Amino acid sequence: MKKTELLVLLSTLSLCFLFADAVSQGGYQAYCGNYIRHPGERIHCSKIHRPVCGTDGKTYNNRCEFCRVAWEMQGKLGYKHEGKC
């Protein structure tokens, strides 16, 4: 592998790790961007079980359930990782 290709690969991997770390540091807004919330409306979630761990140490049934609570808490709840806490 040429030095240039290696440098590009390492740079790309570094950016991926930096982005993942930013989301895991509690960036619920980045993690929950697909769940549009209108003032006064509740987010309706499916019952699909794909656990998500919040920074409060609680396991949420899925990403949508986590995001519903995160929006309600207005930034006091962050995303920790996929899976059970």
Give the helix/strand layout.
Blueprint: H1 3-24, H2 28-31, E1 52-54, E2 59-60, H3 63-72, E3 79-82
Antiparallel strand pairs: 1-2, 1-3
Pfam family, one: Kazal_1
Organism: Ornithorhynchus anatinus
InterPro entries: Kazal-type_SerProtInhib, Kazal_dom, Kazal_dom_sf, Prot_inh_Kazal-m
Task: Walk me through this protein's architecture.
The protein is of the alpha+beta class. The protein has a single domain (3-82), classed as Wheat Germ Agglutinin (Isolectin 2), domain 1 (2-Layer Sandwich), CATH 3.30.60.30. The chain contains three helices and three strands, in the order ααββαβ. The protein has helices at 3-24, 28-31, 63-72, and strands at 52-54, 59-60, 79-82. Strands 2-1-3 form a three-stranded antiparallel beta sheet. Strand 1 and strand 2 (59-60) form a beta hairpin. The longest helix is centred in the N-terminal third of the chain and has 22 residues, at 3-24. The protein is extended.
Compact summary:
The protein has 85 residues and is of the alpha+beta class. The protein contains 3 helices and 3 strands, in the order H-H-E-E-H-E.
The count of domains is 1
CATH classification class: Alpha Beta
For the secondary structure, the number of strands is 3
Largest sheet: 3 strands, antiparallel
What general form does the structure show?
extended
Low-confidence stretches: 15-25
Sheet/helix structural class: alpha+beta
Proper CATH architecture: 2-Layer Sandwich
Average residue-wise pLDDT? 76
- Radius of gyration, in Å, reads 16 Å
Ends apart, CA distance between termini: 40 Å
Secondary-structure element order, N to C: HHEEHE
CATH topology: Wheat Germ Agglutinin (Isolectin 2), domain 1
Strand order of the largest sheet: 2-1-3
**Helical content band:** 40-55%
Strand content: 5-15%
